[in-house]
Design a protein that fits this description.
The complex is a heterodimer of chains A (about 150) and B (about 400). Chain A is an alpha+beta fold. Chain A has one domain: Double Stranded RNA Binding Domain. In chain A, strands 1, 2, 3 and 4 form a four-stranded antiparallel sheet that branches. Chain B has about 400 residues and is α+β, with helices and mostly antiparallel strands. Chain B contains 14 helices and seven strands. In chain B, strands 3-5-6-7 form a four-stranded antiparallel sheet. In chain B, helix 7 runs antiparallel to helix 9. Chain B is globular. The chains are: A alpha+beta (about 150), B alpha+beta (about 400). The interface between A and B is large, with 55 and 84 residues. Strand 2 of chain A pairs parallel with strand 2 of chain B.
């Protein structure tokens, strides 16, 4: 999830990016008025979360997650994004951003830098969350000897 | 038996709805925002998502707001919304070991690998009302002055894997199904596969799942487990990227998980543990633990106790089913009830008439009441007639 120029990594970065930030990036791309066609309208859909039960190692359906996918064609380049929740604007913006980087748009490096910041923020946030949890790590002591 | 439609003034129904809305807005303060609900009442939105079987934190906050805090109603709203959406696909099945856990305690193992991490909890404090919250103004971060150590986030070793290394858990057989049962698309039939049990329990109503799990502990069952671990954290939602085919993560899904060990004495030559498993959307440890007990109980395949009877458990744990059936009773049943009234009146009239006839006519020579003969041969009994008139 570190390289914004890699399509799969970029997908994850876009999915983790703030919706308003994606919209700003997409608007910057569209300021040049490039030819844009929407291949898949951004519409909320469901992904069934499957989990492998750890004892029998048997997958089961935990429940569905709401996501919003979108796909566009920007010039000759296709872009695809899927964001968590019901967020049509973010999904469409994400697909435009994806296509822009894939096609080497003049803003591609700027976009990559911004998406790189998403990765950094996410890493720091997770590290902070982990450090806070570790701060509550405890060693329980049995009190048999005290009784 | 069928339902009989009634109609009423649409305007009056609208007025009742307006009054309901007025209750939500009656206070002089500004309406509570969806952001506040999502951020500060996470347990409430988690319960709604869990019981809806739909993970969507913001929509759950909206549903809780609309339902004025009624979690089952909120879950109903979420399921109704869900029914309007297409399914993109199933996720790549994720191993629970991929969870980014922020809390993990093991009641079974004191020195569990990875340690006991209490995480955010009030489990070990007294349950006393905090009156200072009444006048709370600016929220301060009570962890602001913590001196945190740098540590690379890591996943925690699953306790089942620890036991498996010791040979205390049997190696699983390969599941004989390619894709798990999806109870949102296929009706649950009995005997039921375990994957369907887990899915149904995962979206069961918290109170129902807790009550039935508790029943096993109170003696109406054989399962009194030791919890191997309870974890709270996030599982990745992973799909195959349509262009690259790589497995990519779309979202982190907050979950609560519980595993229980249950001694099995059937295999005396090779004693091992049996297990129960619980996993549910959002922070809801109570439900996850109860699900664990029910999973272990249902695996006993007994009909001796309610919690061990899959059909009984799965028929009553779904909040939408119970909500709908219980609450429909307050809807108009005028035609049904009028029918019952008519029949009861008719019975009473017949009995009065029979008494009069008895007084007027002596019994038949064989000692049989002629009225009873007619009833038993040509018509159902009075009790059968009343029960058959119930339209439910």
């Amino acid at each position: 999830m570190e390289n914004p120029h890699d399509r799969s990594d970029r997908f994850e970065l876009i999915a983790a990016c703030d919706g308003d930030a994606l919209t700003r990036l997409a608007n910057e791309v569209l300021a040049d008025d490039p030819p844009l066609s929407v291949l898949q309208e951004p519409t909320p859909q469901l992904v069934m979360q499957q989990v492998v039960e750890p004892v029998e190692r048997r997958p089961f359906n935990l429940g569905e997650v709401v996501v919003t996918p979108a796909e566009v064609k920007l010039g000759d380049d296709r872009g695809f994004a899927m964001v968590p929740g019901k967020n049509e604007r973010a999904a469409l913006s994400g697909a435009i951003v994806d296509a822009a980087v894939a096609g080497g748009h003049r803003l591609a490096d700027d976009i990559a830098t911004r998406l790189g910041e998403v990765a950094t923020n996410r890493r720091e946030e997770r590290a902070r969350e982990w450090a806070e949890s570790k701060h509550t790590a405890v060693e329980f002591e049995t009190m048999e000897d005290d009784l | 038996m069928g339902y009989v439609a009634v109609k009423a003034g649409e305007e009056l129904i609208q007025r009742a709805e307006d009054l309901f809305e007025k209750q939500r807005l009656a206070d002089e303060d500004a309406p509570i925002t969806v952001d506040q609900l999502e951020g500060q009442l996470e347990r409430l939105t988690a319960q709604a998502m869990s019981e809806a079987g739909l993970y969507a934190p913001r929509l759950a906050a909206l549903a809780v707001k609309q339902a004025q805090g009624d979690t089952v109603e909120a879950a109903f709203l979420l399921r109704a919304y869900r029914s309007t959406l297409e399914r993109w696909d199933e996720s790549v099945p994720v191993e629970p070991s991929a969870m980014f856990a922020t809390r993990r305690v093991s009641p079974a193992f004191k020195d569990v690998p990875g340690g006991q991490i209490l995480g955010p909890t009030k489990d070990y404090t007294q349950r006393l009302l905090d009156f200072e919250l009444e006048d709370e103004d600016e929220s301060g971060d009570p962890t602001a002055d913590w001196d945190l150590e740098d540590a690379e986030p890591t996943t925690l070793t699953n306790v089942v894997d620890v036991l498996r290394e010791e040979g205390l858990v049997s190696e699983p057989d390969e599941p004989d199904v390619d894709a798990p049962t999806d109870t949102t698309r296929e009706p649950v039939t009995f005997p039921v596969e375990r994957d369907a049990v887990l899915q149904e329990l995962a979206r069961g109503e918290t109170g129902a799942v807790t009550a039935l799990g508790y029943s096993a502990l109170r003696g109406y069952g054989q399962v009194h487990p030791t919890l191997a671990e309870v974890r709270v954290g996030k599982l990745p939602l992973t799909i195959e990227h349509p262009y690259t085919g790589d497995e990519v993560t779309v979202a982190d899904v907050a979950v609560s998980e519980s595993e229980a060990v249950v001694p099995v004495y059937a295999k005396r030559d090779d004693p091992q543990f049996a297990f129960g498993y619980g996993l549910t959307f959002g922070r809801n440890e109570r439900k996850a633990i109860s699900m664990t007990i029910l999973d272990a109980s249902i695996q006993l395949e007994s009909e001796d106790e309610p919690a061990e009877n899959a059909e009984f458990v799965l028929d009553v744990v779904d909040g939408m089913d119970s909500f709908g059936f219980i609450e429909h009773l307050k809807l108009p049943h005028y035609v049904t009830f009028q029918s019952i009234l008519d029949r009861i009146r008719a019975i009473r009239e017949r009995k009065v008439a029979g008494t009069t006839d008895d007084e007027a006519e002596p019994a038949a020579d064989d000692g049989t009441d002629p009225a009873e003969c007619e009833s038993s041969e040509s018509e159902p009994s009075d009790r059968e007639t009343i029960e058959a008139s119930d339209d439910d």
